Hints:
By secondary structure, this protein is α/β, with parallel strands linked by helices. It has helices spanning 9-22, 42-50, 113-123, 142-149, 169-179, 183-188, 204-209, 264-278, 292-301, 316-328, 339-346, 360-373, 375-378; strands at residues 2-3, 34-39, 67-69, 74-76, 82-87, 101-105, 131-135, 157-158, 211-212, 220-226, 239-245, 251-256, 282-286, 307-310, 332-335, 348-349, 352-353. The strands form 4 sheets. A 7-stranded mixed beta sheet has the order 9-15-12-11-10-13-14, with helices on both faces. Helix 8 (264-278) packs across helix 9 and helix 10 packs across helix 12. Residues 377-385 have low confidence and may be disordered.
Amino acid sequence: MLGGRGAGKTRTGAEWIRGIALGEPDFSAAPLGRIALIGETFADARNVMVEGPAGILAVHARSERPAWSPSLRRLEWPNGAVAQVFSAEDPDSLRGPQFEAAWADELAKWRHADDTWDMLQFGLRLGARPRQVVTTTPRPIPLLKRLLADPLVAVSRARTVDNAAHLAPVFLDQVVGRYAGTRLGRQELDGEIIEDRPDALWNRDTLEMCRVAHAPPLARIVVAVDPPASSSRRADACGIVAAGVAESGVAYVLADDSASGLTPPQWGARAVALYRRLQADALVVETNQGGEMALQVIREIDAGVPVKSVRATRGKYLRAEPVSVLYAQDRVRHAGAFPDLEDELCDFGPGGLGSGRSPDRMDALVWALTELMLREAAQPRIRVL
């Protein structure tokens, strides 16, 4: 189970242990008598997994609650089921004991993740169907990525906001409000694994460094559109990205309204709406896909919108590279978080995106920043409607 902070991971693990120890029908056909509990440290296992407010002792009714012996690191239920507590700091402590089930908490934080995990697997050898549950906020460690790729592993996910009813409003306002959509927030709140592609033009650290809450007054704003070739659900998305430039010469990415499955009138209306909302100065439209049709779409929606048509004469990588240099030169800011756009930026290398799809959001961003910052180099063909 991958989850954000406060998403209910500990409660999930504790309820699962209760269910298998008591032989609850939804968990096990019969009580499982030998269980391992592994935390990042023994203190974490004791304070969170066993004694914590969402831990094993808390989820049991008084009549069924196991006896807890901290000195023995042992829980024993009235029916004879026993759980032993281990620390991931000491993989060798798992040599010898054998179990029917195990709960591994915060696996992504384990100091000796592979060694501890391997020793646990050797010990899961009792009963007809040894099983284990992992509850963790994810990090891109090799072990976790191997588990996620294993077809025998069932994966569930929970975000912090999914458990909002049981969290303090101040936490939701201050923490969730501040970090939502950022790399840290997507990892710690949404339970996503976020990592960089080594040969990508952008990286996460650069994007986090350029993030600001709001843009200052801007001298010029444009909305760039990268139209799709068709409007089918399987077609590429329509990239719609807005950016502006301040008097200081620093550019600010303001919005990503890209979407898939839009008809030409729909993406045209979406782009014009963003133009109006931001009181932009122009729409920049790539005309490689559809040519005159793309311009006609805008004309039919609002003939008064100034449109600058641009045509790609170089490959996507060559067009994107000078824009990525602007980021490296600290000349671009992101006014807020744009997760889908930033995912494309950090996954775009010489061979394109890892998925093989078209980087439509990135293309729109490139056209916007080229118009604002690299116009002389780009020499776009301008056509005002």
